[in-house]
Amino acid sequence: MASPARWNHVWIGAETGILKGVNLHKKQTINYAELTTLSRDQEVCAMCWGDDQESEVLVGCLNGTVKTFSTEKGKFTEFRDCSGGEGPFQGLAMYDSSLVTCVESGLLKVWKEGSPDNVEINVGRDVCKMRQNPAKREYMATGGKENDLKIWDLQRPEIPIFKAKNVRNDWLDLRVPVWVRDMQFIPDSDRIVTCTGYHQVRVYDPSSPQRRPVLEATFEEYPLTAVSLTSDANYVVVGNTHGQIAVIDLRKGKLVKCFKGFAGSIRSVQCHSSLPLVASCGLDRFLRIHNIDDKSLQHKVYLKSRLNCLLFTSRENWEKEDIVISADCAEEIKEEDDEIWDTMKTVVDKNKTKRKTEHQKTETTIKKKLKKIKQN
């Protein structure tokens, strides 16, 4: 029988090193970790799916270990030492059955399975994020503090195929600082959207001769930490260090709406691939699922630890799926109950029988006395 872990809707990595699976319909959270050997150096820094079927979750830890969790078996199946460079993982990806990692010091490495010839690329210092292009998996985007956006082709890793150019000086003719915090490729196009530590959202188009942003928008005045495209790719959801999440229109570069109720810095945001839902987590220890259309809070789950990153399943038809799960569970419970009742012996309450016998004796004695009184 398959593990119930496969029905989880959201996977979350915590600072404590625990991988948490959340089933939103059952309102159930399960921790997957060896609690006896848990330590701070196992903090989850990055996550990604191990395959297109979402049957594996790859978890990158602070100590340089990458764990493989099987959602079918409900346990960790592989531990791989991917240490190299300095700093935590800033991104994980799978390319052609090879694991791709990137650490803060700027070492991007392709770990080829069964081969010692690993590809190493120096993408620059102080990396904050590495992202893979889902349509062209050999393309990786990187960026960080004073390390502007670059796009790399793993088949030709010598130089980046695109290198962003900083915007022009400000009105005081001073250089504008660079701090790329997160990015995502826009589907069905060559464009890519980024968010910065200086509250800017920028869109780049590598297919155009212009290396500067083709669109720029700003949100509030706090550093942006996470970005995710909606299912139609016309809007982007961003979160900042002040616990604010907003939706920005990429066609006009304008703020559309904001979500409320957060209490700490946002660490990760991800939109569902087809439904109008967005999942977010951060330092306030809550997982929240919002409806993007009407801003309503669909789910709110307290997870006890500070949360770093999440993966949102792409499965659809959650309601039908829930009926199937409930029917299977009900059938299993019924079968177990029948077996238990069949093996149980009938228990007789001796005290009850004793009390009944004494009551009958008392009644008999009273009847005899009444009979004697009538005879007299």
Summarize the topology:
Blueprint: E1 10-14, E2 19-23, E3 28-32, E4 44-49, E5 56-61, E6 65-70, E7 75-81, E8 89-95, E9 98-103, E10 107-111, E11 119-122, E12 127-132, E13 139-144, E14 147-153, E15 162-163, E16 180-185, E17 192-196, E18 200-204, E19 215-218, E20 224-229, E21 235-240, E22 245-249, E23 254-259, E24 266-271, E25 277-282, E26 286-291, E27 297-302, E28 307-312, H1 318-343, H2 350-375
Antiparallel strand pairs: 1-2, 1-28, 2-3, 4-5, 5-6, 6-7, 8-9, 9-10, 10-11, 12-13, 13-14, 14-15, 16-17, 17-18, 18-19, 20-21, 21-22, 22-23, 24-25, 25-26, 26-27
Descriptive overview:
With 376 residues, the protein is mostly beta strands. It is 14% helix and 41% strand. The chain has two helices and 28 strands. The strands form seven sheets. The protein has a four-stranded antiparallel sheet with strand order 3-2-1-28, with no helix packed on it. A four-stranded antiparallel sheet has the order 4-5-6-7, with no helix packed on it. Strands 8-9-10-11 form a four-stranded antiparallel sheet, with no helix packed on it. The radius of gyration is 30 Å and the shape is elongated. The N and C termini lie far apart (82 Å).
